[in-house]
Design a protein that fits this description.
The chain is α/β, with parallel strands linked by helices. The chain has a domain of about 90 residues: Alpha-Beta Plaits (2-Layer Sandwich), CATH 3.30.70. Helices cover about 30% and strands about 20% of the residues. The chain contains three helices and eight strands. Strands 2-3-4-6 form a four-stranded mixed beta sheet. The chain has a two-stranded antiparallel ribbon with strand order 1-8. It has a two-stranded parallel ribbon with strand order 5-7.
Length: about 130
């Protein structure tokens, strides 16, 4: 009866995104990884630490930009730089977006002791892949 990480089929009136439409076993076939780092390679350490950091970053971004995220975050790690790639809905004025982006970069850079950058894209409304 339970299906983990899947959107349940309803009456056809629930909009879902491309990421939500495909179940987890399609990662690397139809959709990509949402966290890109090298800790899962052979003889690399710190996979659990990276996972905890990613969960904190996601919750922090969801709280800071409440109701503005159009899709899931993509978190990339290149050397010691953390790059956060969100797609936002244009609900807030641009000045507030710029302030929140700078606030997020500064606070997370201070917390993780490494440069944090945000590569932001905005859309007018949430992009619907299909209805379930």
């Amino acid at each position: 009866q339970n299906q983990a990480a899947r959107v349940r089929v309803g009456k056809g009136d629930k909009p879902i995104t491309y990421e939500e439409a495909h179940p987890p076993h399609y990662i690397a076939h139809r959709k990509g990884w949402l966290s890109q780092h090298t800790s899962n390679l052979d003889s690399e350490e710190g996979a659990a630490d990276r996972t905890i950091e990613d969960v904190f970053i996601r919750k922090f971004i969801y709280g800071t930009f409440h109701g503005c995220l159009a899709t899931e975050l993509v978190i990339k790690r290149r050397a010691n730089v953390i790059i956060i790639c969100p797609i936002f809905i244009q609900k807030l004025p641009p000045q507030k977006f710029y302030f929140l982006i700078g606030y997020t970069e500064a606070l997370l850079s201070h917390l993780y002791k490494c440069p944090v950058k945000m590569e932001v894209q905005t859309v007018e409304e949430k992009v619907v892949y299909k209805y379930l």
